[in-house]
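Entry 14. Ran structure prediction on the chain below.
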Amino acid sequence: MEPIVLFFKTIILRPYVFLFLAAFLFAAIKLIGWPRTWRFWLVSWATAFVCEFSSTRTGIPFGWYFYNGSTIGQELYFFDVPFMDSISFSFLLFAAYCVALGLLLPMESSQAKESRFLRPLCFSLEARTSWAVYGLTALLFAFIDMVIDPVALRGDRWFLGKIYYYPDPGWHFGVPFENYIGWAVVGLISLAVYFPLDRHLASLTPPPPMTPRLLLGIGLYYGVLAFNLGMTFWIGEMLMGMSGLLMHLPVLIILTTRLSVRQPVHLAK
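Output, structure tokens:
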């Protein structure tokens, strides 16, 4: 019974994580269906857990860091890895995948109707499992952690708590660059397993309109980003917050420009 009790304690202690997880499940089921969703979650969670377990013992692939066990008894741990931490990788990877799709999926033919405001995208198997999507997803996955990890490292100044530390703090607001390489590695391994599964499952033909469904996952990416930037500014880390904001703003502008339909301007005669 103890793991079950700890699981419910984890939900109470980290409600925001499980809200993001629920948003991921809703968005993913809408976009790719349940058979692909549970495989995506399982593959990404298992990959993240193995990599975290490895890094806390060998320094590979994130570099050396350690959980201090300050919340043992308050939330669920697998070995020395908090459950909430490893499951976060799953919804963040899916969110990064959706942003990559929004940036790279080809447009449908001009005859296709999506909405008055959104461009129609082609969600073909070849397009959504391309090498470009594979690489960009891993990059965006590590990119969002460049906002998350610095503020998480200062968790003692907000409600996350001080749960881990780096023995050798890095140049990026205390986070070593190896950490971001590790995030990219988790993304690359997870997608290398998931993409072949996607190709071998029954064909996926989401009912139109498709772009609004993709926006659910994109919204998750920027919702997590906004939450972490909000915490960054709330604890008074203005330079860190502005750095994260300016890093991500160009991507958001490009994405918005690409997906938005420009309305014709009617000049008065």
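The chain has a mean pLDDT of 92. Will compare against last week's run tomorrow.
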